[in-house]
Design brief:
single chain, about 200 residues, mainly alpha, two-stranded antiparallel sheet, 2 strands, about 0% strand, elongated
Length: about 200
């Protein structure tokens, strides 16, 4: 019986608190249009553009490096072009060498003279031609794969960079380590950490 009375008392106490609560001052305003702001509102942050990352990724997908230029990081575009030129160069070299060894192997299997046969003497054995084909095909495929990976990474980099450019990077948000000497205990240096918040 005591438990029921105490629960009833707590419920009545909470209801009386909510009944005696203050009236909210915002409910007095009839419409939002009635609110007037005096002066100009200054914002230090840039305008958030939710489409900027997708535009940067789209431009980078159309032409590598264009997304980086859209983000106004012009120095990154030559890096992207150079990074993509290296696997393209090695793909072309490995592909041409692969075709060379493949043609020589086919000619030799059909009993014809190939480029590695000089005056009837084979300078490269058939086994070496077969092994070279396999190795060059692997190198060609790896250079193609690395080119595709670099292409995808530059798209992702342009998108992530466009996302990160919209964050507030004000100097008030930085961590500045400083050395402050204690005038009381000058002889015995003390190490400590102070965190200072500015709002």
């Amino acid at each position: 019986m005591f438990l029921k009375k105490s629960i009833l008392f707590v419920i009545i106490a909470f209801l009386s608190l909510s009944l005696s609560a203050q009236k909210d001052s915002i409910t007095d305003v009839k419409k939002i249009q009635d609110l007037k702001i005096k002066g100009k509102i200054k914002t230090t942050q840039g305008i958030y553009n939710p489409l900027a990352p997708s535009k940067a990724a789209f431009y980078s997908a159309i032409f590598p490096g264009l997304g980086q230029m859209y983000n106004k990081k012009y120095w990154k575009a030559p890096i992207v072009w150079g990074a993509l030129a290296i696997p393209i160069y090695y793909h072309q070299i490995n592909n041409s060498d692969y075709r060379r060894f493949r043609n020589a192997y086919r000619l030799r299997k059909n009993g014809l003279v190939d480029e590695f046969t000089v005056n009837g003497i084979e300078t490269v054995s058939t086994q070496t031609l077969e092994t070279a084909q396999k190795q060059l095909r692997e190198n060609r495929d790896l250079s193609l794969l690395s080119g595709v990976i670099i292409y995808i990474l530059q798209i992702v980099e342009a998108s992530v960079n466009a996302h990160l450019m919209q964050f507030n990077t004000d100097d008030n948000l930085t961590l500045k380590p400083t050395l402050i000497q204690d005038p009381i205990s000058f002889d015995a240096p003390a190490v400590g950490l102070t965190i200072k918040y500015n709002f």
